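Annex B, item 7. Sequence and structure tokens for protein A, then protein B.
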Amino acid sequence: MTPGQPPGGGPDISVVVTGHHEGELAIPTFRALARSVAAAVDADLGVEVVGVLDRADASTARVFDECLADGSTIGALAATRLVTTDLGDPGLARNAGVQGSRAPWVCVLDADNLPTGSWLVDAHRRASEHGGPCVVHPEHLVVFGARWEAWPQVATADPGFRRENFYDRTFWDTFCLASRQVFDQVSYVPTSAASGLGPEDWHWGMETVHAGFEHLVAPATALLYRVKPASVQQGHDEARSLLPPAGLLVDGSVAALLPAQPNDAATDDRSQLRGLQAAVVRPRPERRRAPRALTWLRRGARDAGPSDDVDVAHYRALNSDALHLDDDEAARHHLTVGRAEGRRGLLTPEELADVQRLRLDDYRTLHPDLAALTDDDLLHHYLLHGRVEGRAARMTAEQRDAARPVRLAPEVVAELAELHTLEPDVPEPTPEALAALRHVGPPMDGSVTAGSRTWWDLVRRVGDQPLDTVVFVGDGAADDGLDATGGATEPSAAGGRVLVVDTAATPAEHPLPARDGVQVVHARDLGDWAHLPATERRRLLATLVVQYRVPRVVVRGSADFEAAARDYQRALGAVLAD
């Protein structure tokens, strides 16, 4: 009987291994794969291994030939074959391997990474239990080489999974086991750093979710993921790649999932901060009843002034010498000292909005120079100094995850020890090495990133219909009205739409008028735009052009988009050329 062929016929699992320029690094990959294939054969599963050499160098071709030859460790256990391609694209090479495979379940693996021994058995069991087309991931990617990290691979049914975060985060690596139906329906699209579009695995994962396929996790499994000094991902980062057009990223139903207000704006358990943050969601009326502490003071003070010029919580936060006073003392301080010196007694709406984002523990952790300050002093520092200095007010979900200790299943820790013997570059899982592991990946708490929140607010306003033209206007251009765009805002005869994106920091003196077939969006009103770094704003504007496949772009005084066009010229060129 042919190796890898079960009594009932063809193989149960095809493993597609793609090779490019891995050379000797592919040897431990095939050794690790042989352990997983042997476990699958022991479990009465038939396996075939398809090697794909895509513009591979001589060293890589030699390793593939030796490791997949008849009589090799893998060749004695599984049917093997080699496919040679001249595609120069990892996703397209993977497509070729899948097309050349025979099993109903296909695992894709890069030739420099190492799967754990039970992976094929456990992933196949998890997929079979599901009972339908699906994608299965290992529980963790353990990153080694240039970094030492653990990236949890989350299931789509997990509360921490938010498809909205696909705008600027990916949940999975390429490595997975999926039903053939998934690969047949969702192929990898052409991507390369040279085109400015990619990476392919992020796009493929997103498209499979949008197609309705469920992603699962096989417990107690892992992939040892090698990070090299020069990698495909690094090439995409350096080329400022953007995701290729994806249906999910312009899907209005996904935009509708996002609540109007942030769902991750948890407050600190500090009474002063809670009081200020409550003012954001419960606006002060224009005239309000004076606090009880002020009422009795004003009975004997004719010069107490209007009742809406001070709030004791605001006054304390703004003035260091009143920080630790109670309500009555703070009110008296305002009347006897603050008013005479012209001190402010109310926070501005902008300050209140920023306070809503503040988490004192995060602020202290992010800025070690403030570690000795009390909570009240931290609040005062943020209002008077931190905001001006641009200091972060709260940790991102990723930063919070990174601070959590990594907990790997005992089976995974044991596998790390085994794989260390196959590849010494994998750290031996000593207590010290495990303690040094840090979490990476998208938010695991179900929150939405600031970039994603802003993107989906834009999609919600724009809709999912095609755009003929996008006009980016900036400071000053809007004051001239739509005519400043040189006629670019005239809808096409075919009934297409024109979108005007105003990137000015402040409203124009003469707002852009509405017009049939023309929509105006003010970037400053979108999601967390005001809190996004300039680099993220540029990425969002360029993504708009790519995802909506805009055939025509006009720029009138928008410094933000002019910078985006420089940063993402390859990606924009690839789309505009179409």
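Protein B:
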Amino acid sequence: MRRLFGNVLMRKCVNALVFLLLPMVVTAQVKIPKEANRFTYWQFEYGEKTDTTVITVERNPDGSIVILTPKPEGTLIPGYAQTVTSADYAADSITVSAYYDDSAYYYRTGFSRSDLEWKMEGGKWKTSVNSNTLVFEMDEKSPVDATPLPHYGLKKGVLLTYSRNGQLLLKLAKAEKAKKVESGKWKVESGRRVSPRELDRIMKERLVVTTRIFDNVQLHWGAQNAHVSDSIPFDTVLHYAGGTLALKRLHLPMLPEHYQHFLELHQRSNGDAYDRTGSVFVIPGFNNSLEPTFFDGINGHPDSLPIFIDRNGERYQGIRSGISHLKKYRISSFVYDPPVELMRFFTPFGVGHFNERMAGFGIDWADETYYRQEVSDLAPLLQGDVLIGVWIGNYDAGGHIVSLDLKSYPNDYTVPDSSGNKPLIRSLFNTCNVLEMAGQNYGKLFATDSLSTFGGVWIPKGAKRVLLRYISTGHGGWGEGDEFVPKTNTILIDGKPAFTYTPWRQDCGCYRDLNPVSGNFWNGLSSSDFSRSGWCPGTATQPVYFDLTPWSDGKEHTITVAIPQGKPIEGMFSHWAVSGALVIEY
């Protein structure tokens, strides 16, 4: 509810005050004086029982009207615009203006909506727009004309009610002759003239907070590794792991909790023809020099990270958290945190670079791969001083070109006076070896071992909700490898099975236009069509969530992942890239 409509409680308080100044809204028709020049409407979100805001229509002496939506109370978010709509019945025209502190825009259009088919039923006008049934109840005997919805046509009379699909959305609350009106202070047709769609785009874009993180960065094999001897510089792209990994430190804005956050990644081949594993991640604790972080392994060598040794004696660097506990105060001090994965993605077979070579194949190849994923659950990690990385595993000299944006969308026009407790994010494990080209091992340990958190994970007592955010993909690219064989992932809590999940994608054939140089077989199938263990070439793997709220008892718990990994064959091996983080809401 908070996401969809923002700070509804605040709006209710404002509306309650307005309600005291209005007569009780009843089903009886409001009497409209002959000299009425102000019409007040209730606007609803879920019918009459949920009031949201007030819309005012003011009538000028020449018969034209101005529609005003009150400016929200409180501190406004960046990009808010005061909008004013005026309608001229005589000229059948509408002017919409948007006023910013630094600029103004408007458009003017004739708008009789002759494209709509209207019919009168039961004394009400009815039409249909985009499969929605709209019903307008008009007082056509009114001596004046007024409507808060001129875009549907300037009908004679005053709008009494408006409903969509049987749900009441607008109702006239009061019609009066006011001594003083507000519409006169707004100068219509001021600022730069634009088209209706352009104004809509401008208003939305100014509300969205966009941060360009990486801009056409090349991820390939052969670049010289950066080395930072002191503090990590801001707004500078640093390349590691032979050039396959890029890092950037930046300062992200502190936004209200009602914002939703999305990653947008654009990728195209710059010479590499294969489907590759990619990851976007943040490094927690990197600016704390007292404890080791994943950046130490990046800037130095993976062997400097905490090591896990499986039963076969293989070493795995930096894949799980290490925790020391201050039991007296019931808090945990994280000695080491693996990177928190924001997005797991997979490149397709050569999109972009090989399109021309495969022209005439009968498929209109895409220019690039576009990935978009919501990361609002990890918002506490996406504000302030942040170190973000993007990686694509490859040994190609051309590699891949990527651009990455973080876009934040508001769900309310105001900034809350105070916020509640922010979610706590605890990184647990990550076997996605983003330092593969620097020597970090693949996640092969599941053949002989399970993956457990080091020591107990303390889950605070009384948490409102505790979720394990889990990403898992299987790899082993031959017929019986784990890439092509479904395998059940079991999550154990304190050694007892609690959840099972089988990552599997059967829709890979939908992305054929992203894979120009995928292998093609005699029967018409392409290798990119085959179902896979939680991924497809050209897609992002979505996280799944396991509810650990029943374990929020203020005690320490061991979280374990077990996967029946397949056996190696003739030098080939299967492995699993799994990452997990706790999202604790208070």
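Comment on protein B: Residues 1-27, 324-334 have pLDDT under 50 and may be disordered.
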